[in-house]
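Supplementary notes for students who missed Thursday's class. We covered one full example, reproduced here. Read the sequence, then the structure, then the short commentary at the end.
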Amino acid sequence: MGKSVLVTSILITGLVLGVRQLGWLEFLELVCFDNMVRLVGDTGPDPRLLVVTITEADLQEQKQWPLSDRTLAEVLTKLQQSQPTAIGLDLYRNLPQPPGHESLMQQLQAPNVITITNLGDTNAEGVSPIPGLSPEHIGFNDFVIDPDGVVRRNLIYAYQGQEQYYSFSLRLTLKYLEQQGVTAKVHPNVQLGNIIFPPLNSNSGGYHNIDNAGNQIMISYRSPKQIARQVSLTQVLRGEFQPEWVKDKVVLIGTTASSLKDLFFTPYSASESANPAMPGVLLHAQLVSQLLSTTLDRQPIFWFWSEWAEYLWVWTWALIGGVIVWRIRQPLILGVMEVISLGVLCIICFSIFTQAGWIPIIPAMLGFVVTGGSVLAYKLRYNSLHDALTNLPNRDLFLQQLEWAIADTKLSQNARFALLFLDIDRFKVINESLGHQVGDQLLIQATQRLKAGLGRRGKIARVGGDEFAILLENITDSQEVNCIADQIHKAMSLPFYNNGQEIFTSISIGIAFSQTELESEPVTLLRDAHTAMYRAKDQGKGRYEVFATGMHTQIFKRFQLEIDLRRAIEKEELYLQYQPIVSLATDKIIGFEALVRWQHPVHGFVSPAEFIPVAEETGLIIPLGKWILLSACDQLSIWQAQFPSNPPLMMSINISGHQLSHPDLVEYIEKILHQKSIDGENLKLEITETVAMNDVEAAISILLKLRTLNLRLSIDDFGTGYSSLSYLHRFPVNTLKIDRAFVSRMEDTNEDAAIVETVIMLSHALGMDVVAEGVETAEQKAKLKKLGCEYGQGYFFSKPLDSESATALLKQQFENITDPNSLK
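Structure (token representation):
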């Protein structure tokens, strides 16, 4: 996990908590609270309660409101006959409503009757308690309405100095608990039996800075509809109820008629479109039921975390959101994980809520989402400026760094920097032969070596596939840069390891220095270093070159050559010449070597030494090689038909390393042999010694596949490479070609003559024949013949010829002109 994730999660947590402190999240938290209340489910009616409702029908029956004292006295009398534990009169009443006032007062004096008042409004008309009643018979209305108009809290107890106030629901609960032998303590917190009711703090749960006066608790709603059994006022007056419905119960009397507007919004209101508000008497029944259930049934009381625990909770989810985004790269998987994580958060919060725990969900969710979004934005920005494989800055970021370095040199005349452009030699070969996974590991290991070697002396970036750039700032002289380049070469010359396999490579470096007197652009400097790197490659790789004026011209010429070569292949500007291969014993032509030539429409003749390396580097050698094979075989089939001989004429064709490793080489040659009706014995493929030894096992495998077509195989320029004699006998080749350099010096030095003799003896010992290249004199021919060399090739016999001239030469031989001088 990056430090950026940790820092981001802390900052976002602070931001979210700051927003929460402002109270901006309270509404959303209360909405979540309401939804969880509804999800908890209906626990059914409380059997300890009975509600006597005053409905619209009851008002029509009585034909008056407020009800007369006699009616209320009659209701109380009938209920008392069934021996209730407590009766709560949820009706504000402080003025007599004759007739029957004395009868009502007598009933209200009963020890189990509780009336209601509104705390703080004792002098208001119609709200103050009935005069003449002792405080034990009066409880205040304990509803606490939140700013959004919803009742979620219950004020069960309050005090002012020595004066204590009990809520309506607490008075009724205490009356019921007296019969159960449960005592109560109400200072400083309400305690019923062994159960303590801890009060709400100003920031409990999702609240922020609420009025927490007195002892407030969160309401655990029992049911949105059937809180308790209900009977109407008229039913009680007529005696239409069972005595057991009342006996030992808490009976509440109150209005449910909507016209009286004694209605309150609850967490259920949002889902109750028909009756969104709950009558006050039913809400009081909820509160009494909660107190009784908590005390007697051990129903859990709402609990809350301390502030520091909530801070840790929010930060944890912010951190989780950041880590998920940082670790997961696939967008689809990331989206799924985000949804799953938010689902887990909701499940955790709801599971705790079912156990009466209210922990903040919105701040945690907000921290998760905002941190994830911030980290995602940072990650996208980071990824746009960094390489995914090596985690190095990419080309875009490096150019920015280079621009800053240029700006520093303008501010300070003494500030200088150097730019190094690095390219791993033979990386493409390694990548293609050993696989991209090995290539990736090589790049990672190379990055680690560059970092270890540079330390804090330079800034490294990956600016291409196997290309790196290094910015060295505040350099004192060029020698310092040269020393660093030498250190890089030494580090990169050590073998790389992949599953125990050693991989050797080198690195080519181009260096460009800042020039304060010139207006340099980052792209220009990078191009200069890149040009110097190409110069280093052209000079033999594994070295460094400093950029100098004029290099661009050379590079441009090479790129133009590549463009022209592509066009030349498409427009068939290339052609073949054929150099005879002669038997030294008979002086007869036994075949030809096909040599590709290019006549540029503007620049004239272009040497193969110029365009063949370009074709190799750009991959153009594949289509070019196919064209050479097809054209040479086509010419061979014509000559074999025109000049039949025994054995038939043969054709030698050079095959590059790229062609040799191409997957469809064998199939393509087989197709050509079939199309041109050529026996594989008459086609000889020549590979250089260096290509053969580059990857011995792979070369042997491919050559064995080619031998299945009966092709003849030859190693070209033998003696100039680094062949190992322990491998040579394993190559399924027929011919070794002695390089022209040894043949030309054979008469001048004993060493070269000895090399030629040794190669001929070695070839014969391995069952191979020998072709000597570059035969230019009769003495060279005679000496080669004496040493047992079978074939010769060179200007002594003939220079490379076009097809018409070669045909004329064959015609002379076919007409039995045997004078060797005629072949010159």
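Commentary. The radius of gyration is 50 Å. Residues 121-127 have pLDDT under 50 and may be disordered. If anything here is unclear, bring it to office hours.
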